[in-house]
Amino acid sequence: MQTTSPVTRTADSILSTNRVLRNTYALLATTLLFSAVMAVVSMAMNPPRGMSLVCTLGAIGILMFVLPKFENSAKGIGIVFLGTGLLGFGLGPMLNAYASLPNGSSIIATAMGGTGVIFLALSAYVLTTKKSFDFMGGMLFVGLIVVFGAAIINIFAQIPALSMAVSGAIVLLMSGFILFDTGRIVNGGETNYIRATVSMFLNIFNLFTSLLHLLGIMGDE
Amino acid sequence: MDNLWFQIPVAIVMGFMIWRMIPAAKHWLKNGPKGSSKEWLNVSMLIGAVVLFVAFLITTVRG
Fold first, then answer.
1. Radius of gyration (Cα) for chain B, nearest Å?
2. What is the pLDDT of residues A107-149, one digit of tens each?
């Protein structure tokens, strides 16, 4: 018993990790697709900026307060789609603003492609090396708090250089969070695929919007 | 964002998110494992690669 039990537990643990990983990527792919469809619908409808803000704030509220109550049941999947769909819909007016720039469609396509490459490369690195990046947790959360603080100041101060610095810092922090979150799934630190999907979706969403912002500023001579 | 009706709710929500993140930051700072210098070097190289890639994207967009 003593010799077989640890082996069985390890095998179970590996199976469980693989299941979480598979379910996370399946749900992530469908939510990203759904969110993209909602963004396209929003671009076509071109809702007023207030509605876009309400959708984004509503999505944040749903993902922060409603989802934790349902994350262990099938209802959680519906709530993830609701939250990510609202986030996608909220992106519409911003995408329309970028699309109206002279090289707007090129900027949007580059930001999308860049986000995809960064996410796939960092995820592939963690999945192949199976390294844990838990040691980055403290630095990432403190970094995010500092960046959010700077972003709040810049909502009122509206300093272009600070805005660019915040976007650059978010790109780096979200890259770090992709390593951190993927490492936690691979090493069994995260066992709930709904929670893992939302974390990964928000990493990609924030990476895309910040990269879009950076390219929008830097792409303009 | 030039309208206070947009600025204030966004600032409040972001402030609230900071407030919600503080316990997680404290938890990871207190209980999280400490990385070795080799692990931090590894992360620095990965993040450095992201920086170079973003710089490449910027030059692509500038044409």
1. 19
2. 999 999 999 999 999 999 999 999 999 999 999 999 999 999 9
* A160 close to B (CB below 8 A): no
Which of A49, A114, A214 lies closest to B6 in CB terms?
A: A49
ipTM for the predicted complex: 0.92
- Chain B contact for A110, CB < 8 A? yes
User: Of A76, A77, A105, A114, nearest to A204 (Cα)?
Assistant: A114
Instruction: Tell me the one-letter amino acid at A153.
Output: I
- Structure tokens belonging to residue B27: 């938890």
Domain boundaries in chain B? 1-32, 34-63
What global pTM score does this model have? 0.92
Does pLDDT of A219 surpass 60?
A: yes
Write out chain B residues lying below 8 Å of A158, CB-based: 1-2
* Tokens read off for B29: 């700072």
Instruction: Quick: pLDDT tens for B18-39.
Output: 999 999 999 999 998 999 999 9
Of chain B residues 15-54, which have a CB less than 8 A from chain A?
Answer: 15, 17-18, 20-22, 24-25, 28-29, 32-35, 39-40, 42-43, 46-47, 49-51, 53-54
Q: What secondary structure letter does DSSP report for A134? A: G
